[in-house]
Amino acid sequence: MLSTTAARTLFTAIAFASFAFQSTAGIAQESTASVSGRVVAAADQVGLEGALVRLVPSGPQVTTGRDGRFRFPQVTAGEYELQVEYVGLEPARRSVSFAPGSANRLEPVILSRLAAGSTGSDIEEIVVLGQKGGQAASLSQERASDALVSVVASDQIGNFPDQNVAEALQRLPGLSVTRDQGEGRFPVVRGADPNFNAITINGARVPSPVGSERSVPLDVIPADLLEKLEVTKSLTPDMDGDSIGGAINIRSLSAFDRGGFSLQFRGEGSYNEESEEFSPKGSVVWTDIFDVNGGSGNLGIAASVSFFNREAESDNVEADGPPELTTDTTGDFFAFGELEQRAYEITRDRLGATLSIDYLHSDTSKYSLQILHSDFEDIETRRRNEVAFGRGDLVAGTLGEGTGQFTDTRVDREYRTRKIDQTITSMVLSGENQSSNWLIDYSAAYSRAKADVGNRIDATFRTGGIDVGYVTGPTSVQFIGAEADFTNPGAFPLEDLELRQQNAEDDETAFRINLKRFLSLGDRPASIKFGAALRLRDKTDNEDREVFDDFAGVGGVPFLSQFVEGEQSGFNLGPFGPRISADALSSYFFSNLDTLRATGLDTGGTNEDSNVGDFESSEDVTSAYLMGTVDLSDDVRLIGGVRYEHTEFETQGRIVDIENETASLAPKISNSYSDVLPSLHLRWNTSDNVILRASYSASLVRPLFNQSANRLIDDDGDVFAGNPELDPIRSQAFDLSVAWYPEGVQAAVGAGVFYKMLDDFIVEADVLGTDPDFPLSTGFAEVIKPINGDDAEVLGFEVYYQQSFDNLPAPWDGFLISANAAVIDSEADLGSIRGGEKIPLPRQSDTVGNLSIGYEKNRWSLRASVAYRDAYLDLLEDPSDAAADNYVREHTQLDFTVKYNITDAFTIYLEHSNANDEPQSVVYGGSSSRFLRQYEVYGYTTALGIQGVF
Fold first, then answer.
1. What pLDDT score was predicted for residue 38?
2. In terms of Cα–Cα distance, which of 707, 895, 820, 831 is closest to 193?
3. DSSP codes of every residue in 479-498
4. Which of 32, 98, 642, 823 has CA 20 to 30 A from 929's CA?
């Protein structure tokens, strides 16, 4: 519920801004006219978004919207030349004149292609479809933006084998992705942790289905539902202030994007090398425009649905903990305490749908309803072998680099199956109204993210006294010396069974209003904009576990031999041993569940595991802003302003005493803080084809929900505590960039440098004796608690180049190229942790880059692409020990796409992703370390499909 303080803040800000605007009313010149029009690729058909429209001389400049429409609300009466520019198309020029007080609706401006020899009939096809059209659309929107923006258009997405939103984003300058089971999952913008990004769908904030996090797993949303992806890297005051990395907007399709009736379908089957299974995929997109209420083409409806059933497997070897220095008779070596083999079977069903209803009531009023829903069902079965060498005895003289022999070790054979159902739903109802000098837009939005884990079964079969050794390499773990005992299922009794249920929900309701007043300062166009927003968010995470360790009531302890179905086949990283049967284990468990609950429950383990991660939190953010824009000349635009955000936070977690097997609700704790976030942006067209941008902006990122939850876990004196009093991480960012759009070709060359200063960086530390809540007299051994540390900084450089070579003679005129790279350096001060050691920001790669070479001519479209990111620090596994830090090694992925247009309506295509079979490789202690943390392989995927467009 909105508090009195927040309400007072909201209404005071609106009243103040309204007064400021009313006081400027007299600045506007008299004898003005309004001008509106549309820029299209074919007469009255497809509108071109991002076209620059100018009135010369000394007139204003505007940008066309998604339907190609533009409007000058206030133009001094007189004669002008109307100039329209769009990347890849010939500029258009037209003489126009406006009488005082008139409302002028211009005839549509139809643009022609740059390439010689083209005809009007192919304009729509080239602009709307294909590699060249996607490149032109993205470059035009990037060029037109006042802020620093990177764009992926839908046709660009369709030319890569990207299955979800995260994978599509990795093609942009300065962006990379983290991966899960070979798929891109979380975007990393300019080296910033995914939790530092703001994700919106059609402008509405998206909550996260991940219980503890703010980051949104974008593998939930299929890529083929989208019209555009927009990444804003420098925030203006009218944007939410909680984004240190980037603000990513996922835009679904509108009927006005297609200009009329359209029907598009896709059917596909793919083959995965590891699973040796085929996976179906399909989508349908429909749009149409209708005449209602006496209007012409004023109602647009767009709907789409997409599904993908992915069958895959992955093979994995990893260490459970960093190696420790151990003395042997031959010297000192690092020895692993536990090593594992893991075999995964994955079934992922991704189902998405969108609905967009857009109503143009008049040239000055429009309303829309946009709905996106995506359901991502991830079924994962894991079979694991784990050997605890640290519980055994080293055989003297056998320890070396990556090898050792042990006696009396413990061996676990484990089985896990779980289904996670993640859903994201976004509904946005919005409107926009214009008068002669005013523009008002408003929206109400509801977004929900949810994750359900149902009937997850974990089973552990354990034996001891095994004499076994290991041999490790950079890509493998092999267990040696005890094959008979190690692989004998009759030697492994059931140690415990576990049943898990989990539910995480994250809901946000938001209301926004923005008002813009168009002015003239002297003879220069200007505007003042103000607005307010209210975001109400509730997040919960609850997990229930039942741990069973007594099987006397169900006929005694069973052995692994009762649940095997031959050998584990297809594991490519060494001998694996018996394969645990999913059906046999599930049948045993659920047929005996009632008896197990009555006689076999481990009450202590059940109590602990069911409470340690539970919390409920609410977060209300009230904001208001004031922003001014002025064209200092025909070529220089200045944007400045300030945003105010007030945050109110309430949380409640659990207090768990593991030794005494107790759990209780922690008290509810509230916190609040306010932030003033100024920003200043300069756009300078240094020539007709060169744009210089410079900006400063302040922003913040609020703590993760599990960090700020009021909870305390006491494990026999070792305590983990949440911290509801955490301050947000605050940032100041500086950007300088230049972009060149060569005349007469579809191309762009750009470079930029950015610098971010982060204060109150959050780290985990032992606060025993230094925190007043945890003095030494508590008797605890240590208290690990997230705290605000010192500071961090990021310095980076980006460069990009894109071009379509239409100007070259045949056959070279079919080539396209897109290349970008970023070099990033960061440093975070850990304060008192590790003696003030400085580390790179988690998830930040020193170098990221993309190269794509395409060829599009006649009926063929070919594309080869490579995405690269350098190694990065992923996790501080032990805050006090740098040797336990997890580093993900560099990653390079090759993808290929081939398309052939059978007819004007039908296209067949072949996609080959991860052609180089790139693994996921993680090491302990540093990016160049030889100590294996994880090595996982996924194989290539080949897809064959057909697409139809009508």
1. 87
2. 707
3. EES-HHHHT-GGG-BEEEEE
4. 823
* Dist. CA 540–CA 737, nearest whole Å: 41
The structure tokens listed for 378 are 């991830």
Give CA–CA dist 742/754, Å, rounded. Answer: 24
Per residue in 763-804, pLDDT (tens digit) is 888 888 889 889 988 889 999 999 988 889 999 999 999 999
**How many other C-beta atoms lie within 10 A of the C-beta of residue 290?**
14
Neighbours of 598 (CB within 10 A): 9
Sheet hosting strand 61-63, strand order edge to edge: 61-63, 52-56, 78-85, 92-98
Is residue 198 within 8 A of residue 214, CB to CB? The reply is no
**H-helix or E-strand spanning residue 738:** strand 729-740
- Regions of the chain short of the pLDDT cut 50: 1-2, 13, 16-29, 115-128
Pairing of strands 109-110, 32-40: parallel
Convert 344-357 to b/e letters by CB count within 10 Å (16 or more is b): bbbbbebbbbbbbb
> How do strand 729-740 and strand 690-701 relate by DSSP bridges?
antiparallel
The DSSP-derived string for 712-726 is: EEEETTEEEE--TTP
- Residue 514: count of CB within 10 angstroms of its CB: 18
Cα 173 to Cα 821: distance, rounded to the nearest angstrom: 6
- Assess whether the previous peptide bond of 811 is cis (omega < 30° from 0): yes
Q: Which positions ≥6 away from 421 have C-beta within 8 Å?
A: 375, 376, 377, 378, 451, 452, 453, 454
* C-alpha R_g of the chain: 30
Q: Which of 154, 123, 131, 50 is nearest to 802 (CA)?
A: 131
Q: In the prediction, which pLDDT does 6 show?
A: 52
937 burial type by CB count under 10 A (0-12 exposed, 13-18 middle, 19+ buried): buried
280: left (phi over 0), alpha (psi -120 to 50) or beta: beta
Helices first, then strands: H and E counts in the chain: 11, 54
State the DSSP string of 438-479: EEEEEEEEEEEEEEEEEEEEEEEEEEEEEEEEEEE-SS-EEE
CA atoms within 13 A on the CB side of 386: 20
Q: Which residues sit opposite 479 in a β-bridge?
A: 470
Beta pairing, strands 712-715 & 654-657: parallel
Within its chain, how far is the Cα of 67 from the centroid?
27
End-to-end CA distance of the chain: 49
| 68-113 pLDDT tens trace | 888 888 788 888 889 898 888 888 888 888 888 788 888 888 887 6
Under a CB-based contact definition with an 8 Å cutoff, are residues 68 and 48 in contact?
A: yes
Element (H, E) at 875: strand 872-876
Instruction: Give the whole-angstrom CA distance, residue 543 versus residue 499.
Output: 11
CA angle 415, 417, 422 (to 5 degrees): 150
pLDDT at 30: 53
Q: Distance between CA 197 and CA 358 in Å, rounded? A: 29
At residue 757, the pLDDT reads: 95
Whole-number Å distance between alpha carbons of 588 and 829: 52
Query: Are β-strands 324-328 and 262-272 bridged in parallel, bridged antiparallel, or unpaired?
Result: unpaired
Residues 386 and 320 sit within 8 Å (Cβ to Cβ):
yes
pTM listed for this prediction: 0.90
Burial class of residue 786 (count of CB atoms within 10 Å of its CB; 0-12, 13-18, 19+): buried
